[in-house]
């Protein structure tokens, strides 16, 4: 599940992107695990899935005390614990502005206005919608078609904002070009810088929440997973710094699976994400290691003062409405 802007709509709309197998694995008479294709779902089956999702989610909300039968004052615990975050969510879902001088107003749209009274919601084969819960199962990739599978996987894991369609207007506002025109004729939306920040803040997932998950036979602890996931006989994956494969007298590396660590260290994560090797010495280029971890602030200040380094954080500049040269780091 990934909060995103489905259909280029600048609002919070949690949904799932699922890559599913078009068949099942069974055990034949020889005791081998084989794959059997199944027919694609019909429109009626997709409609039953949408209806089942609607009923299941409704029952789940009622069990947790946030269903339609519960008063908003009793149900909205987020409003009591995190009022600002609750307001950002509410404004993002409704397409309004949460903060600033335009609080409560609609997001600025650019395009030809079209009367939607006689418009019919878009539909297609293997698509269904029940009370706002929609299911789309109309994409199928043939076996071994890696060229089409990769773009589909990239689409499922795409970031919420396409930076190539985001531009800065002369007055300091941000213009976001929609990939597809909305049904009301909107082709662009305009945000103040603070409005863009609040829309992005509403899309940040909760802490320790995995956005990518594997189920059934593809799950990490599935019993049959080693039987259906191909593994290389040799260690062809790039080795990390302390991989035994780099040592001349290391053990035999021609075994299944790569020799990289299952969990990367903090320094390796920084190198992979920011392309910054924090353990490389800036003077000699050698490898550094942690000698001690110092936590007390008083001890840290004394050490920095002894080394002639600043021990106080830089002063925070006061907020200003004038934007001389804004920078936006989006992904």
Briefly summarize what is shown:
The chain has 331 residues and is an alpha+beta fold.
Q: In one word, what is the shape?
A: extended
Mean pLDDT: 76
Distance between termini?
A: 18 Å
What is the succession of H and E elements? EEHHHHEEEHEEEHHHH
What structural category characterises the helix and strand content? alpha+beta
Number of strands: 8
The percentage of residues in β strands lies in 5-15%
Note the main sheet: 4 strands, antiparallel
Q: Measured on Cα atoms, how large is the radius of gyration? A: 26 Å
* Unreliable segments of 5+ consecutive residues: 1-6, 116-120, 234-242, 244-258, 322-331
Q: How are strands sequenced across the largest beta sheet? A: 3-8-7-6
Molecular structure report:
- The protein is α+β, with helices and mostly antiparallel strands.
- It has a domain at 6-217.
- It is built from nine helices and eight strands.
- It has helices at 43-63, 72-75, 77-81, 83-94, 146-156, 193-201, 225-228, 266-274, 297-306, and strands at 23-27, 33-37, 108-111, 127-130, 133-136, 166-168, 174-177, 186-191.
- The strands form three sheets. Strands 3-8-7-6 form a four-stranded antiparallel sheet. The protein has a two-stranded antiparallel ribbon with strand order 1-2.
- Strand 6 (166-168) and strand 7 (174-177) form a beta hairpin.
């Amino acid at each position: 599940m990934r909060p995103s802007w489905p259909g280029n709509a600048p609002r919070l709309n949690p949904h799932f992107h699922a890559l599913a197998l078009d068949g099942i694995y069974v055990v034949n008479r020889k005791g081998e695990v084989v794959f059997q294709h199944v027919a694609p779902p019909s429109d009626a089956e997709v409609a039953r899935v949408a209806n089942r999702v609607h009923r299941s989610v409704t029952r789940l909300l009622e069990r947790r005390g946030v269903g339609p039968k519960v008063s908003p004052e009793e149900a909205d615990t987020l409003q009591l614990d995190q009022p600002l975050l609750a307001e950002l969510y509410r404004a993002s879902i409704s397409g309004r502005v949460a903060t600033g001088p335009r609080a409560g107003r609609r997001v600025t749209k650019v395009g030809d206005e079209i009367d939607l009274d006689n418009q019919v919601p878009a539909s297609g084969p293997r698509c269904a919608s029940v009370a706002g819960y929609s299911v789309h199962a109309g994409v199928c990739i043939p076996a071994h078609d890696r060229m089409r599978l990769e773009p589909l996987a990239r689409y499922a894991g795409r970031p919420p904002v396409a930076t190539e369609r985001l531009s800065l207007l002369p007055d300091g506002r941000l213009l976001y070009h929609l990939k597809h025109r909305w049904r009301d004729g909107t082709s662009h939306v305009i945000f103040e810088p603070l409005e863009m920040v609040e829309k992005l803040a509403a899309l940040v997932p909760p802490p320790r929440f995995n956005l990518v998950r594997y189920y059934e036979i593809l799950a990490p602890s599935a019993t049959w997973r080693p039987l259906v996931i191909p593994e290389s006989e040799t260690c062809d994956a790039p080795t990390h710094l302390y991989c035994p494969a780099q040592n001349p007298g290391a053990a035999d590396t021609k075994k299944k699976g790569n020799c990289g660590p299952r969990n990367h260290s903090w320094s390796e994560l920084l190198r992979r994400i920011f392309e910054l090797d924090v353990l490389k010495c800036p003077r000699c280029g050698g490898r550094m290691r942690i000698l001690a971890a110092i936590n007390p602030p008083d001890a840290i200040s004394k050490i920095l003062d002894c080394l002639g380094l600043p021990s106080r954080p830089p002063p925070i500049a006061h907020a200003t409405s004038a934007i001389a040269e804004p920078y936006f780091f989006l992904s």
